[in-house]
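[audit] Reproducing an earlier prediction to check determinism. Same input, same settings, fresh worker. If the tokens differ from the archived copy the diff job will pick it up downstream; this log only records the rerun itself.
[audit] input (122 residues):
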Amino acid sequence: MKKHVPLSCTGLQYYAEVTEGEDHGETIRLLYKAAGTFKIVSCIAGGEAGVDSADVLSERLMVRTNGAGANRRDKKVQQELVRDAGLRSVRQAAGKQFSDVEEFLRKERYLLVIFAVCFTFV
């Protein structure tokens, strides 16, 4: 994703560039080394692929953060929280197999959005 640069950012010049280390601890050491005497004041993901890592790094760097809590980016969990707060939310069903959601799918009259995640473990 390094080569994916919006036109509005083509002229930006960076003080330093850091490539991720073996783990977040190593990445933080590399960030502090690259910053030198400058204070690190924020951590921003450059793209979708880096959001989870930026959340962890921002927590560990003790700068403003979205937090790296579990399920924070889970759309189903977000909609449940919206509903629990008394706001309108989507009707939804989830499960690990088709039978878990089959009744919901057969009864729902409106347009359906199906989000499937498939994992194969070898």
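[audit] rerun output stored. Observation attached for the diff report: The chain has a mean pLDDT of 86.
[audit] end
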